[in-house]
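Researcher: Re-running this chain for the archive, since the previous output was lost when a drive failed. Same request as before.
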Amino acid sequence: MPEKRSVLAEIFLTPEEKRLRSGWRLIGHLMLFILIGVLFIIPSALILPLFSADIDELLLYSAILGFPAVTISVYLARRFLDRRSFASLGLYINPQAVKDLGFGLGLTALMMGLIFVAHLAAGWLTFDGFVWDFEPMSAVVLTSLLWLLIFLLVGWYEELLARGYWLQTLAEGLNNFWAVSISSVVFAVLHLGNPNASLTSALGLIAAGVFLAYAYLRTRSLWLPIGLHIGWNFFQGNVFGFPVSGINTYSLLEYTVTGDRAVTGGAFGPEAGLILFPVLLIGFGLVKWYTKARQVTS
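Model: Regenerated structure tokens:
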């Protein structure tokens, strides 16, 4: 006969083992994230005035702050609340991890290239030239590397949080459908403060969140969604010159988008346009093809 559990145990602890239920662990992580974030924000108030108002410097600083706040809070929550290893989130380092990162980067280069070619073919671009026509090549290389660093940090900590801790903890307490749905909606809501955000952009980001979650579920590894996230931002912004979730990054191409905002996404970028969805379908198909030999459930 199973041991009778107290009311408090039923509320706070899982029946299988003595650890907090998923909802309480998510709340615990949020508290850790806020605490650690505050510890980094206090000294930043003294450092931030040293930076100029340039968007690349401010975003670099934000990414540098977000990286430890998310990484440390997730590590502590995983270790002490979940009673699981940090690597078990899908962060095992092996040759497959390198392949997944590379495929993610290559796939997003293709996806963003298709969006660019569609704009070009439809006559939606007024091309002005290449950035090296206006700046020294040394400045082009250094600034591009700076933005790559920003997107490396952002791709890591946003995936660690959204497809790592949020999705996986929700899936333990609910199921994959609700875990993907809730984590993707929260992911989109957190971008509503970006410039030129709208309901349309939120819907596009929810779809992007589902795509990244699908990449995790097909591999049970975070390396593929991390590669997709880094490549998505870098190729969309720095290589092909579209706004990245409302932010105008440093771009190798200089042009003006003249197409219908409902299709192109306008000042927010392709995530807010109808052009995103056929390219996402291609992405889903290629992720399925790439992962067809994996022994995982999706």
